[in-house]
Please model this.
Amino acid sequence: MQFRPHLKAACWAALAACPVVGHAGEPAPRPQMNFPVTDRARFDYRLHCGGCHRDDGSGQPGFVPTLKGQVGSYLWSRDGRAYLVQVPGVAQSFLSDVRLADVLNYIVGDFDPKGPPAGAQPFAADEVGALRKFPLSDATKHRRRLRTPTSSHPERP
Ligand code: HEC
Model:
């Protein structure tokens, strides 16, 4: 079926009136501003993590978990938050504590901004420094436990 010109015009008019689109030139508002997305962290992520997790965080099915629409959900529990730092690829990366904290904030802010609970705090360098000293020897076991919502964080949607 042909896309009739007057329908097209009506669609554009509807889009222009739609508040979600916002004013021309402005980025759409982010629901979660606590997890800053910086250029340096994006660069560090691509260099140190993107080889496995992909630049867009989509991972490799069956091998490397996706971070998209997922990573923020771990922030609903203390254990989950620690897991994000102690998973081996994070804890044992070559990045300094400061830059690693920035990368963790970046992956939440860019790949799953709606995932964390309201008011969740960003990762800080000293928190990351303390937790990364204890990398998980069995990440898969922890992952399985944390991904069962009722057992670990019942409040999670
Ligand atoms: C060599 C490949 C590789 C690299 C490099 C890597 N990861 Fe991972 N990552 C994995 C795998 C595999 C898992 C699944 C848990 C496990 O087996 O360690 C994982 C798990 C994770 C998780 C937990 C996600 C979940 O749902 O379980 C996060 C968060 C994460 N990685 C972030 C990062 C960050 C940030 C970096 C860079 C600093 C990084 N990873 C580097 C392979 C990698």
About this structure: DSSP finds nine helices and no strands in the chain. The two ends are 41 Å apart (CA to CA).
